[in-house]
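FAQ: What does a ligand-bound record look like?

Like this one, built around nickel (II) ion:
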Amino acid sequence: MPVVHITRRERFSAAHKLGRPEWSAEKNFATFGKCSNPNWHGHNYELWVTVKGATSAETGFVVDLSALSRLLHEHVIDQVDHKNLDMDVPFLKGVGSTTENLAVAFWKQLESPISKIGGTLHCVKVQETENNSVEYFGG
Ligand code: NI
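The answer part, i.e. the structure of the complex:
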């Protein structure tokens, strides 16, 4: 059967702050811009998860999208939505909430559960703003 890539989008809203505590506010602002605001700020994030696999001869699906959505909620969205990414999320403790780091951390959360519904995780894309997004393909 042909191998197809299928993508599910989920959305979440969360607070965060970027910066190194040992740096001055000026250096943090020069490096991280508005995302270094000391009193936090938020984004409306989008998470795009692409799964690859052979289409089933029986269903024509790569994976059941409702099962994929449930899995994304259980392992990522329910843990990050309306949370402070730097303080409230156990799997992000000490990670540093750049979009790059979020994509890698979400991959680690999702790779094994996605294999259990019969797909192979291909890409985790995290969009922080309309203009900025990151893609991670593992490795
Ligand atoms: Ni930010």
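Follow-up question: can I read anything off the structure? Yes, for example: Residues 3-13+44-136 form a domain with the Tetrahydropterin Synthase; Chain A fold (CATH 3.30.479.10).
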